[in-house]
Amino acid sequence: MRGGGGGRNAAARARLAARLLAVLGCVLTAEAQLTGVLDDCLCDIESIDDFNTFKIFPKIQKLQERDYFRYYKVNLKRPCPFWADDGHCSIKDCHVEPCPESKIPVGIKAGSSNKYSKAANNSKELEDCEQANKLGAVNSTLSNQSKEAFIDWARYDDSQDHFCELDDERSPDAQYVDLLLNPERYTGYKGPSAWRVWNSIYEENCFKPRSVYRPLNPLAPSRGGDDGESFYTWLEGLCLEKRVFYKLISGLHASINLHLCANYLLEETWGKPRWGPNVKEFTRRFDPAETKGEGPRRLKNLYFLYLIELRALSKVAPYFERAVVDLYTGNGHEDAESKALLLDIFRDTKSFHMHFDEKSMFAGDKKGAKSLKEEFRLHFKNISRIMDCVGCDKCRLWGKLQTQGLGTALKILFSEKEIQSLPENSPSKGFQLTRQEIVALVNAFGRLSTSIKELQNFKVLLQQTR
């Protein structure tokens, strides 16, 4: 009997060893594919890893904890504009806890109706939160010059080429959410509802050629015989702008998946959940063998998206470097520290020596380039509207925020001349960003920075299985 048990144990150990070798082989294969220079730019992955780990990640984490950037106003009740609502996620982790009015810094609420917090800085101390919510209470303390400036800002916003469908912050359904208390993580939301959202994004908005019959949606059922190489050959026939569009969406999808894998509900005992990295889930979504070679490509698209948003941060720096721009919450000391940290991050972004060159996009004849840019903008705006179809409130919150962040980055990249020509002392002329756009921009890039850091952590966890 002992001999038989030993034989069974030996066989079990052999099977375990075979599985570990298979995992190790996949790790080495993935690492071999996830190196070198990215397509459509001259930057290598190793440089991004080092830059993000040692310069950006620690600072962007600190910035996201500041009051100005942790409170995001969002409408999670907007109906889906494309199909009948198929029900909201009933899992408790899908729930978003809105922030009580009393917790919102008075300066943020006072400035929510304004484009610039500098003018709010000139207002008198507001007596309570109820008074702060009344636009009349704010307007009564403003100079005529500031009032005219607000009109100018509104006119400019109406003419801006927005890449996102923006929430109406004045809607009674719009609420402030504390992002630190509602972290992005795996909620259990999946199935037909999630599939429909991503399928609509990929199949209807990613410039899919009619000749490509295979679904672009990674969540779609696989067809036998397909491989990563044959799947990605369709990209080669597209112009740069359309290739970039697909990579941005794929990179955003990869980043979101990484967040879910890194912050996964591992167990829940006695009502106390334990969240952490799920190596098995990461392998299922990104391993070359599990994804037929597509996993490493998805992760490369994450790096490409990181480069795009990094470039936008470096381009928008002059907008914030002006003394007229404050990150106003009502706490003067914290506001000054927040702006100093933001400018420090901008200096780091400018020091990166392998930026994506956005000037290579829309560089053809003026008429064709203008038409393509408009098509690009409308496709992305459509994707921002699809985020209102997400059935899980927490997923919808982070989907809307990250989509708006990317849309703001695109707005910046295509407004370089307007940013460069900004007057130093006038807040009302030219390029503008709302507070919501600023918060979304910083937090969206923070999510990408976290994704790349978590990717390094997963590499270590996988190598520990050797």
From TrEMBL:
It is found in: Endoplasmic reticulum membrane. The keyword Disulfide bond applies. GO terms for cellular component: endoplasmic reticulum lumen; endoplasmic reticulum membrane. The active site is at residues 392, 395. FAD binds at residues 185, 187, 198, 250, 253, 285. Keywords: Disulfide bond, Electron transport, Endoplasmic reticulum, FAD, Flavoprotein, Glycoprotein, Membrane, Oxidoreductase, Redox-active center, Signal, Transport. GO terms for biological process: cell redox homeostasis; endoplasmic reticulum to Golgi vesicle-mediated transport; extracellular matrix organization; glucose homeostasis; insulin processing; protein folding in endoplasmic reticulum. One of its GO terms (molecular function) is thiol oxidase activity. Transmembrane segments: none annotated. The keyword Disulfide bond applies. Disulfide bonds join 89-94, 392-395. It is a peripheral membrane protein. It comes from the Eukaryota. Its cofactor is FAD. InterPro entries: Ero1, ERO1-like_sf. It holds the Pfam family ERO1. Residues 1-32 form the signal peptide. Belongs to the EROs family. This is Endoplasmic reticulum oxidoreductase 1 beta. It comes from Taeniopygia guttata.
